[in-house]
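Training component of the fellowship. As part of building independent skills, the fellow (R.M.) carried out the full modelling exercise for a liganded target. The chosen ligand was nickel (II) ion. The inputs are recorded below so that the supervisory panel can assess the work.
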Amino acid sequence: MVKLVYLGHSCFILSHQQDSIIFDPYINGNAGAGKIAPADVNVDYVLVSHAHADHLGDAVEICQHSNAVLVSTFEVGNLCRSQGVSRIHTGHVGGRVNFPFGYLRFTPALHGSGVPGGLACGFYLNYHQVGIYFAGDTGLFSDMKLLGQLEDIDCALLPIGDNYTMGPADAEMAVQMLRPRVVVPMHYNTFEQIAQDPVLFKENVETNGLARVEVMAPGQELEIARSS
Ligand code: NI
Ligand code: MN
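Fellow's submitted model of the complex:
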C-alpha cells in the first residue's frame, strides 16, 4: 500500500514500507506544512519540478540532513549542487529512469523553470506499481492525453490555482485527457492570487463522471491502491 500525505501547496510525501519521496518540498513559509520543519523530513528522494521558491523550497536542507537523492532537471540539479547537495540524479523532459521503487518519467510542464535556460517539469512515477502523476506548475497542454495513453494513472496531483497554472476548468479538461482514477487538487489558496474552491472543482469533476476527487486538508493522509 502506498500512502500520500499533503503538506499544503504542491508539497506531498509519498511513502511505502521500503522508501519515501517528497515532491516540491516547500516547508518554510508554507502554512500548510504546519509545525513540520525541514529537519523533521526524512525521505529517500526529493523531487523538484522547478526552482521557483514555492517548489524548490527546502530541498537543499532536506537532502543534506537526510542524505536523500535530489531528482530534477539538469539545470535545477546543478543549482542544488552549487548549494551543497551531493546526491543528485538529473534528467530531462521525455526521459524515463529506473529506480528501486519502479520508474520515473520527466514530463513536460508549461511553466518557467526558475533557472536560466531551464525547463519546468512534472513527474510520472510507477511507484511500487502504483501510477502517480505530479503535474508540477503547468498550464493545460494537449499532450497530457499522450501521458494518459502511455501510462496508467492511479492518482493525479493537479494544480487548480489559476493565475500561475491551470485553473479549475482547465484542470477538469486535464482530467479528461489523463483519465486518472483519483485526482488530488494542489497549488491553490496558499496565496491570494491562487484562491479557489476545491470542493466546487470536486463536484464538477465527479458530476461529469471523470474521476474521484480527494480534496486533502494539509496534514491529511490518503492511501492509494494499485488498481490493476
Ligand atoms: Ni512556479
Ligand atoms: Mn508555484
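The panel noted the following from the submitted structure. The longest strand covers residues 102-108. The chain has one domain: 2-224.
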